[in-house]
Amino acid sequence: MVSFVVRLTFKPEDIAEITETLGLLTAESRREPGCVTYIPHQLKEDPNTVLIYEQYRDEAALEAHRESAHFKKYAIGHLYQRMRERSVEHLNALL
Questions:
Q1: Is 44 helix (H, G, I), strand (E, B) or coil?
Q2: 3-class SS at 25?
Q3: Euclidean distance between CA atoms 67 and 72, whole angstroms
Q4: Could you tell me if 39 and 85 are in contact, meaning their C-beta atoms sit under 8 angstroms apart?
Q5: Of the residues 34, 62, 78, 88, which has the fewest C-beta atoms closer than 10 A?
Q6: Strand pairing of 85-91 and 49-56?
Q7: Are the beta carbons of 35 and 59 closer than 8 angstroms?
């Protein structure tokens, strides 16, 4: 299992558009056969920051996600163009 959290920050005026794009990206990503979990969150303390918790069956499933048309369109083509900062935290399951 491959698990991680992506943290993205945006300008306040972009949040409504970002939320719409995340909805489209989430729906497509959840349909991928190797996607276990894909859940975007908005921080209560900082509504300009989005966390996306993602889990994939294995590295091949993650690579398929990154190569998908919807990832290229919505993440690379839109979210990455609007983000101010991005970080990724890789996770190891304890149980």
A1: coil
A2: helix
A3: 7
A4: no
A5: 88
A6: unpaired
A7: no
Task: Dump pLDDT digits (tens) for 30-80.
Answer: 999 999 999 999 999 999 999 999 999 999 999 999 999 999 999 999 999
Length of the chain, in residues: 95
Domains and CATH numbers, the chain: 2-91 (3.30.70.100)
pLDDT at 15 over 90: yes
Calpha distance 43→87 (Å, rounded): 15
Q: Where are the beta strands (DSSP E) in the chain?
A: 2-9, 35-42, 49-56, 85-91
pTM for this entry: 0.94
User: What is the three-class DSSP state of 60?
Assistant: helix
Here the tokens at position 70 are 């919807």
